[in-house]
Amino acid sequence: MLSQTDLAFTDLLANTYHSAVHLEMRNSYGIGEEAAEFERWRSGWRPDPDPATWWNDFHTWVRDATARGVVFRRARIVSEPVSDYIRYEHACTYQNLAAGELVRWLPRRKASDLALPANDFWLFDRRVIMWNHFTGDGGSAGPELDERPEVAKLCASAFDAVWERATPHEDYEVQ
Q1: Read out DSSP for 20-71?
Q2: Is residue 149 classed exposed, middle or buried when 0-12, 13-18 and 19+ CB atoms within 10 A define those classes?
Q3: Where is the DUF6879 domain positioned along the sequence (predicted)?
């Protein structure tokens, strides 16, 4: 069963034709099944490299959208040295890449002079924002859709500035 966030995401994605960008700025997240997987990872478990063991709906949505020409870019602003959660994310990013995403990493100290929104977000075709709100402990506080053109322009500009400075996943070494 899809969550309300999943339904909102898939609906937005179905109406996206050019680009989907995602800016992540937290040092840890505690969302559902991912939180449990992270705890297993901290105990030494590692995902099997075989996509059949980890491929999920999100990966299919990305793959299908990229097949029709949507470019997916994800940028992560991280504190260094990185948190255990960011180590986990970095170690599992090959899954995002396999689905068709491009991923870059930006140390937080290199983002100090950038004007950034206060929340993580997805931006679809540079016009529709899906804000990702979180609780203090990293749990989801639900998405919020925003179609204000001036705010979409701010998010696009912020993402582009981060992307320009960020290091491609294959070149970023966690510290």
Answers
A1: EEEEE--S----HHHHHHHHHHHTT----SSHHHH--HHHHHHHHHHHTTPE
A2: exposed
A3: 9-172
